[in-house]
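Reagents: none. Just compute today. Condensation domain-containing protein.
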Amino acid sequence: MPLSAGQQALWLHHTLAPESSAYNDADAALFTPGPDADALCRAVDLLVTRHDMLRSRFVRDGDGPVREIAPPGSYGLVRRDVSGLDDAALLTLTRELAREPFDLEHGVFRAVLLHRPHDAVLVVAVHHIATDALSQRLVWRELAATYLALASGAEPELPPQRGTFDDYVTNERDMLASPLAAELAAYWRDVADGSQAAAVPPDHPRGSRPGYTGATVVRTLPVDLAQRVRETAVATGVTPFAVLTGSLLILLHRYTGQEDLTIGCPTTTRRSRVLRDVVGLLVNTVLLRVRMSRTDTVAQALAAVGHRLTGAMARGTYPFALVNAGRSADGPLVRTTVTMVAAQRADQIPTAGDPPVRLGPHTVQMLDVPHLEGQTDLTVEFTQGPRGFSVALRYDTELYERETFERFADHLLRVVTVACDAPQTRLSRVSLVDADEQSRLFALGSA
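Predicted 3D structure written out:
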């Protein structure tokens, strides 16, 4: 099977850094009591049979890569008895499994059940070449539904799939062979020409090659602030994502002094119903280039970001890999990316940080495990759930100390607060510190 442009780019990255786990997309669920292992084993088999992307291998054929599909049953559930592990050791092992690199020539999917007498952890990891955020939610949703049916003695009933990933690849190739491709390419060349990637100033010098190692800092927006984000979006005629992304860009402007900032925004390319239930890399990064001045107001900045996002998303089908081609001599187009993941109504499994839920006879809690870390200087992921918003800052550990992004996260929440409560504030007057920290800084200055 042929690859999409995005898959070709990730395959190339894998050939350059085969030991990297930067593109591992992993989740882990703690079941109390542990699941029926036989029913779960069959549920995983049915899942992998239904979605051939999960039993794919990516190999070189002639001058480039192709996707081969292994027969059903090739990648099933691995069971491990970890009765001797305490909670801390179990979490450590879970995180190690999440970080374990994939060999794309041998597979892109693994499911491991770590079981103890009274509970168990299910780790599901997929390489990003075969999945995206919505695909991961689909995998867990179908796995939960199938498991519950089998554990109760019933046969699972899932709706028939309306499309395949190969439909997506065909549509992309048709678009690239059409006159629209030249129009989109010209638009993105204009956006990229002379742009400067926005990034937090690093704590350490850049090496000759990126290490693709990362870590994550997470913050949850207070419930009242999350509500004000929604209200501000309505009042200013933009989306909540634009409010949060605008706050991020304002903060980068304040950190760097740049007035011309460019970041990347991964966005879904599921633009038809037939692709809604397909597992695969159905996401593309678009460039968001915004100009800001210290005399602009926060409201003006948010409006500019909303306008730019609208234009970028409307042209989001043109592969970023083609926009980025040949850019290495001038440095990367993007060092910072931002995206938003929203919980789906049909999800039965929560996201990490959410309260535990009931799944049949089990209590299920998602564990905080590393995934998609070290891809860029900074990857910002906002998650929108029933309780509000959270933000994960995934940063390059070769360039930054953790304290930098602990502080950055606090500053980001401060900017979001100003965006909601005082949108007429000029960017130069947006305070990044609270009253207590300001008093400490004044005390240092007078010492």
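The chain has twelve helices and 14 strands.
Action item: order primers for follow-up constructs.
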